[in-house]
Predict the 3D structure of the following.
Amino acid sequence: MGRFGDFAAIWFGALVVLNFAVFPALGAPFGIYVETVVSALAGFALAAVLVFHRGVSLPTVVGSA
């Protein structure tokens, strides 16, 4: 998988986890649209830093467990 595939997979994973696990567990008072935008931006930033700055690839993340 190339860098952009890794980026997309990490971004989507972060979006799903934040939207359906973290925000409901915290009981965040935001609306669903605000939570989705915040999740998308946070996931984008996390994926960009991990893939393009730190050089993380998905096989290394999955194989490390």
Remarks:
- Residues 18 and 26 are 10 Å apart (CA to CA).
